[in-house]
Amino acid sequence: MIPVDYYIIVSILLFSIGSAIVFTRRNILYVLMGIELIFNAANINLVAFGQLDPDLNGQLFSMLIITVAAAESVVALAIVIVLFKKLNTIDLNEITHLKEK
Amino acid sequence: MKLIEVVFLFFSIQLLSSALVILFTRNVVYAAIALMSTLLGVAALFVLAGSDLLAVVQLVVYVGGVLILLLFGVLYTYRDPESYFEKKHVLLSIVTVVVIAAGLLFLLSDLSFNYPTLSKVPSDKAGITRAAGQYWITSKILIFEVVAVFLLVVLVGAGWIASKVLDKSKTEA
Predict the structure, then answer these.
(1) Domain layout of chain A by residue ranges
(2) Does B60 contact A at CB distance below 8 Å?
(3) pLDDT per position in chain A (101 positions), as tens?
(4) CA-to-CA distance for B171 and B173, rounded, in angstroms?
(5) Which of B154, B28, B7 is nearest to B85 (CA)?
(6) Which domain holds residue B52?
(7) A97 contact residues in B (CB cutoff 8 A)
(8) Do A74 and B72 touch (CB under 8 A)?
(9) How many domains does chain B have?
């Protein structure tokens, strides 16, 4: 069996790469991909800690996370499509319509 | 080094390097393909952790569903990739990754997990799929139903947002 620490290290690195994508990218689609990476880092942790649990709590919870992440991605894509129809851009620096002029 | 550790190392390097491709590439289509590679690597790690059911769910939901949806979004909103690019972006991303990873790894180095090392997963005998299914329809049925209703609401809501209802209200105003 692989030690839990290895899983945690991989998940830390994946989480930091995902949050760097969320912080630095200007295209909304990259930000969505970064959020997916963060969800996956959390899932790796849950599965690694839950692998010896006879009640399967970690794995059932991580199945819930996968479902909610899919739902989040669907709604976000719908919002992106509406934004692109209305503003003709998905650049986060150009979507400033709520800002005081 | 045992064989399973070599396999683990291979898949973690694969998923982390494809995540770095997402961070540094300028072409959003390449980023979507690299995301697929990352998700496959995560599914492999799930298998190594003894959770083959979750690996299949990961393949079906993420690679089969979310990724196709993202690719559709990429193609629908495609624009010149250079228009999003800034020179300070690369340096800023490296700094962010290093700072967050160093902080969390420092926290991890202070922790020590008193974790038993077994050679076998407890639910091996019944089969993990069977056990998970029994948990979902007995003791965790409430969560299961709530998530089902939630998914229905999300489907209807996303369809409503992306439909022409919002366009009409704009032209009337």
Answers:
(1) 4-87
(2) no
(3) 788 889 999 999 999 999 999 999 888 899 999 999 999 999 999 999 888 777 788 889 999 999 999 999 999 999 898 888 888 888 888 888 888 87
(4) 6
(5) B28
(6) 1-86
(7) none
(8) no
(9) 2
